[in-house]
Design a protein that fits this description.
By secondary structure, the chain is α/β, with parallel strands linked by helices. It is about 30% helix and about 20% strand.
Length: about 325
C-alpha cells in the first residue's frame, strides 16, 4: 500500500486542485448550498473512515432524544437500495447499510433513521413526515456541501490527525487541511484515557483553531460485557475466542483486548466487509466469536452463528462534556 501511495504522489496536486476548486465555488456562492430554518448537525471528517463518527452520532442521539424528535440521515454505504429509505421493522443491512441499521436497532422506538445519497432530498422527505424531526443529524456529510448544516462537528483521531496527513491518493484526506476551518467543533477522537494537559496543548497549537472554533478530546470506553442476541456475559469470563472486525481501524480494540491479556485470533477484514458464504462457513467452525457492533449487524442474520456471536459495546467520553453539550443545545434553541 505504501508503495502505491508513493507512486501516486504526482497525482496528489491534481486531486488537491479539484477539491479546492469545488470548495471555493461553494464558498463564493457559485455552487448552491441549501440552508434550513431548523437545526441540522453534521458529523464528519477530512480523512477516509475510522475517526469514530458512529459513536459520536450515538452520543448526540443520547444527548438529544429525550427533549427533541431526532432523525439521523446517512447515505447508506453499500446498501442494495436506491433513493430515500426510512428504516422500519422490515429494514436490513442490505436495505439501509450497516451503520444506519445499528442506529435503528439501538434507538428504533426513539428516533427516525433514514438514508439518502442526496442529503437535500433526504432532509426534505423527513420534513414532510407527519412526525417530522426537530433535529437532523447528518452522518458523514462534511464534504456534502449541497447542504449547509447549522453546526459542523469535525472528527480527527489522536494517532492520525488531519494536520499531519495529505490528500488522496498519497494520503487519506478527502480534501485539503484548510477544510477544517468550516468546522464549529473539532473533536480529537480515540485519545489515551489519561491524556495530559501538555499533550492537549500541543494538539491545540497544531490545530490552530479559529476564534469561533471549539476543540474537545474524546476517548473510547469498551464495555466489560459482551452481548449476543440473547445473552450478556462478562468479558473477564472469556478464555479463548475469535475476534472478527470489518472496520477501518481495529488497532484500538486489539490493544484493549491485549491489555486485558485475553487469548484470541484476529480475523481482520476491510471496512464495511460483506461477508461471503465462504466467510460464514469458516466462522461456523469457531467456538466463540467477538465482533464490533457494526459487524454484528451484518452477521446476526445467520442462525448458524446465533449461539456463538457476541459484540463488544463501546461509548465515548468527551472531556469538558458539559461544555460541548451546552454548545450543542444552545445551537438547537437559538
Amino acid at each position: 500500500m505504501k508503495l502505491i501511495r508513493n507512486i501516486s504522489f504526482p497525482f496528489m496536486p491534481v486531486y488537491y486542485a479539484v477539491t479546492s476548486l469545488r470548495n471555493s465555488l461553494y464558498d463564493l456562492g457559485l455552487k448552491k448550498s441549501t440552508s434550513y430554518n431548523f437545526p441540522i448537525i453534521c458529523v464528519g471528517n477530512l480523512s477516509v473512515g475510522g475517526t469514530g463518527k458512529t459513536p459520536m452520532i450515538e452520543y448526540l442521539i443520547g444527548l438529544l432524544k429525550k427533549d427533541y424528535k431526532v432523525a439521523t440521515l446517512s447515505r447508506g454505504y453499500k446498501r442494495k437500495t436506491k433513493g430515500f429509505q426510512l428504516a422500519n421493522k422490515f429494514s436490513t443491512v442490505e436495505s439501509i447499510g450497516d451503520e444506519p441499521f445499528q442506529f435503528y436497532n439501538k434507538f428504533k422506538s426513539e428516533i427516525l433513521v433514514a438514508v439518502d445519497a442526496d442529503r437535500t432530498h433526504g432532509i426534505n422527505q423527513l420534513r414532510e413526515l407527519d412526525n417530522a424531526p426537530d433535529v437532523v443529524l447528518l452522518d458523514d456529510a462534511f464534504q456534502h456541501r449541497k447542504v449547509k448544516a447549522g453546526m459542523n462537528i469535525l472528527l480527527t483521531t489522536y494517532n492520525n490527525p488531519y494536520f499531519l496527513d495529505y490528500v488522496l491518493p498519497t494520503g487519506n484526506l478527502r480534501e485539503p487541511r484548510k477544510g477544517a476551518k468550516r468546522a464549529d467543533i473539532i473533536v480529537v477522537t480515540k485519545c489515551p484515557i489519561n491524556l495530559s494537559d501538555e499533550e492537549k496543548s500541543k494538539f491545540l497549537i497544531s490545530i490552530a483553531p479559529e476564534s469561533f472554533q471549539h476543540v474537545f478530546f474524546s476517548s473510547i470506553n469498551y464495555s466489560n460485557y459482551i452481548i449476543s442476541s440473547e445473552n450478556k456475559i462478562s468479558l473477564d469470563t472469556v478464555t479463548n475466542f475469535t475476534l472478527v472486525t470489518g472496520i477501518a481501524n481495529a488497532n484500538p480494540l486489539v490493544e484493549f483486548l491485549n491489555e486485558k491479556r485475553l487469548q484470541f485470533e484476529h480475523l481482520n477484514f476491510k471496512d464495511h466487509h460483506e461477508f461471503t458464504e465462504e466467510d460464514i462457513l469458516a466462522l461456523e467452525k469457531k467456538e466463540l466469536i467477538i465482533t464490533t457492533e457494526k459487524d454484528f449487524m451484518r452477521l446476526k442474520q445467520y442462525d448458524s452463528l446465533k449461539n456463538k456471536l457476541f459484540y463488544l459495546p463501546i461509548t465515548v467520553t468527551i472531556n469538558n462534556e458539559q461544555d460541548i453539550n451546552k454548545l450543542i443545545k444552545d445551537f438547537i434553541t437559538s
